[in-house]
Structure formats: structure tokens, C-alpha cells
Amino acid sequence: MDWRAVTWMDCCRAFILIWVLFNMISMIVYASNCEMDCPLGDVESLVNNFEDQYGIPIDHFGVAEGTRGVGSVAAQEIVEVANLPENVEWLKRIRRRIHEHPELAYEEFETSKLIRHELDQMNVSYRYPVARTGVVASIGNGNPPFVALRADMDALPIQEAVEWEHKSKSPGKMHACGHDAHVTMLLGGAKILQQRQHLLQGTVILLFQPAEESGAGSKRMIAEGALENVEGIFAMHVSSDYPTSVIGSKPGPLLAGCGFFKAVITGKGGHAAIPQHSIDPILAGSASVVSLQHLVSREANPLDSQVVSVAAFNGGGALNVIPDSVTIGGTFRAFSNESFYRLRQRIEEVILGQAAVHRCTAVVDFFEKEDQFYPPTFNDKDMHKHVHRVAADVVGVHNFKIVPPMMGAEDFVFYTEVTPAAFFYIGMRNEAIGSTRSGHSPYFMIDENVLPTGAAMHAAIAERFLNEHKFRTKKL
Ligand SMILES: [Zn+2]
Ligand SMILES: [Zn+2]
């Protein structure tokens, strides 16, 4: 070939030909890496998410090695499956069966049986019993990383006041906190994850836990090995504060620490007309109640929310008798461990001190042995970010809210002490059907349209966590 005869135009033509060929090959490779209906916008967000936030290398076709099944593409597939009409009907059926047969803490035998039956139907393996009635199931390749999802199973000692077809059939017991929905959504998540097992880059551990309302079931689950090797745990709670399927959470302190106290103050009983012969415990108790009110108003930082409430004062009976003893009791809440444990210490000091001033003795019980002592719940920053990102994919970025902390408490806190964790809310408020009452009300009800969204959130959170953790482990 005579190179002197090659013109500038020949060079341009050759360059254009190579460019066209390169793009054709790119399209073929791209199509083989992605679902045929995969919208380009999703791949772009996948690239941005991964390259920017995790430093995971993205190849020049926009697909990171092994990322199929991660991010918004996977979330859309998961949401579609969750909302299939037959799946929605199945979720409603399960939730209604659990709602009709509520069981209190550590008595969730029928609920547990239903869970195991559904897991058997899905061919999901599990361990039972854990913490008396609990079930620990696993889905995936059996290898690390391990991520846990938690649902609580217990009901409350409340008589249901909602008149509907599937009202509680157990007098005096009711799923008034939505734990029937929690179990259902986790079973829904299990079904989706089992169908996507081939995409899981590790193992999902499903915790069906007893005794959240009382008895700290989470502590027993941990003691019986439920969190072994787990690198992160997530749980969601239905909330009537937010519209159906809106997700809410926050990093850092989310739920208050909750403690209870009961003090027996003992003096010396006698005739109320001759007080000099008695040592009056009613006076000592009254002084204690007044002084306890100063702990928050005078000792706490006004910007650090705390509560001390005396809710019981029992003693005496006859109007002319000073009793031997009185019992006072109540609850205290705080959002930091420091404030929480300081309140505990000061409550004891104040009651013992006021008893001594009035020549009485006192014994204060904080029910620590009975597991009635829940420290504040903190969301790990990275785990919260994970929930935020997944929620943006599952329900849309505008349906995720940063929520204020609340004074309620959760035994989920004991999981957070063992492994990075995040707790979040899923709204189920629907004025049209009246699902506006907050938890623990006899009129509590949920909008069942939340169930497929909750199932999708569980599945998407776990699948994406495993994929991202696998990369991180690789990088290390
Ligand atoms: Zn509750
Ligand atoms: Zn609850």
C-alpha cells in the first residue's frame, strides 16, 4: 500500500467505521448484561451510586462486575413481584389469620407454626425453637456476608374495639401494634428472596422474634445465637404517623431508652391522730414525688428531651391510720445513654434521700432482672443511609422522610448493641379507611396496602446489602 496516497478524508472514514463498530459491540455486550426492558436511566443511577459512593469500579459500559440484581433495577423487579395480585392476596390472607389469633409474649406458638408452614411451602430452611417460640430462617448461599431482617410476633393484652370481618377471636388480646403485619411483610420478603436466591451474594437471616412488647425477646434470640456472624440488621415498624408506604427514619437516636422503677418506702404505722408515735411513709413518698419532678426541670439540659413520670402511689386505706409503708412507681425516658443512666442513678438517690430525711427506709427496684430496662435505640449512620437509598428505589425519593425521634422504646436496641443496625417506619395511614390510630389503641388498624411495599423493602434491603458488602469485603 502506498501510504502517501492515503488522504485526510480516508482517515476520517476509517475512524467513523471503527467508532460505529465499537458502539455495536458495546450494545451487544450491554444487552447481555442487562434485562431487555432495563431503562437507561436506572443504569445511569447505578453508575452514579456505585462509583461515587462506594468506589466500586464501573466498566465503560456502565455495568459494574457482578452488579446485576443490585440497586434500582433489582428494586423495580422486586416491587413488581411484590405487587402481583396473587402475592398481595396471599399477604392479606396471612395477615388476617395472624390478626384473628393474637398471642402474647412467649406464647406465640400458633403464629410460629404458621410461619414455619409458610417457610416449608417456600422450601426455606429454618431453626426452631429459638427463644421459646422464635424462628430463625436463612436464604442464600450459606456463606458470608450475613444480613438479618427482624419481625416481632407478639400481640398486646387489649380488647379489640374495631368491628370488622377479621377481628381478634381471642378475648382481651389484640395485634394493636401491627406485629401481625411485621410477620407478614417478612414472610413476603422471604418469598421474594427465595425466588431471587441465585442473585444473592451471601446469606439473609430472617428473625421471627417473640416478646417485643414485654420480656425482651431480642435478648433471648441473641443469647441463642440468632446474630452469629451477622454484619447488619434491619427492622421496620408500621406507623399511622405517615401515609401508606412512606418510609421514615433518621440516623442516630431514634427511640428513647425506657426504664421503670418501683420503690417501697417503709416507716412505722400508727394512729393518724397521734403522729408523733409513727414514722409517716406517705410524707416521705410525697416528698419523693415532688423531688423526682426536679430531675428533668432542674438538672437536665432543656435541649435533651427526658421524662420522669410517677404513675403509681399506693399506701394506706383507713382514713385515720398512718400506714407502715407506701409504694410509688413510674417510668423514665431519655435519648442518650448518659442521660438515661444518670436518671436511673438520680431516681434512686432522690427516693433513698427523701426517705432518710423523713426517717423512713426505701428499696428501689428497676426491674433490670425482668428485662424491663431498654436503653435508647440508635441507628447506625451507614445502615440508615442504606435504608434511605433502598427506600428511594422502592417507594421513590419523595416518599422517604427524615423523622423526629420519639419517646417510645423498642427491644430492637439489644440487636443494635451487637451489630450495626437500622430501625425504620413504614407508613400505613389512610384516612379513607380510618387507619389513623396510633399503636396500642383498641381502635388500631392498618392499611393492608402497606404489605407488598414492606415485603419489597425487606427483600431489596437484604439483597443490596449483600451485594455491597461483598464488594467491600473484596476491597479489604
Ligand atoms: Zn407496641
Ligand atoms: Zn410494636
From TrEMBL:
SUPFAM superfamilies documented for this protein: Bacterial exopeptidase dimerisation domain (SSF55031), Zn-dependent exopeptidases (SSF53187)
Ranges of residues in domain Peptidase M20 dimerisation: 261-351
InterPro entries assigned to the protein according to its UniProt record, in alphabetical order: Amidohydrolase, Bact_exopeptidase_dim_dom, ILR1-like_Hyd, Peptidase_M20, Peptidase_M20_dimer
Segments traversing the membrane: 12-31
One of the record's GO molecular function terms: hydrolase activity
GO biological process: auxin metabolic process; jasmonic acid metabolic process
Pfam families: M20_dimer, Peptidase_M20
Alphabetical UniProt keywords: Hydrolase, Membrane, Signal, Transmembrane, Transmembrane helix
Sequence similarity: Belongs to the peptidase M20 family.
Protein name: Peptidase M20 dimerisation domain-containing protein
Organism in which the protein naturally occurs: Picea sitchensis (Sitka spruce)
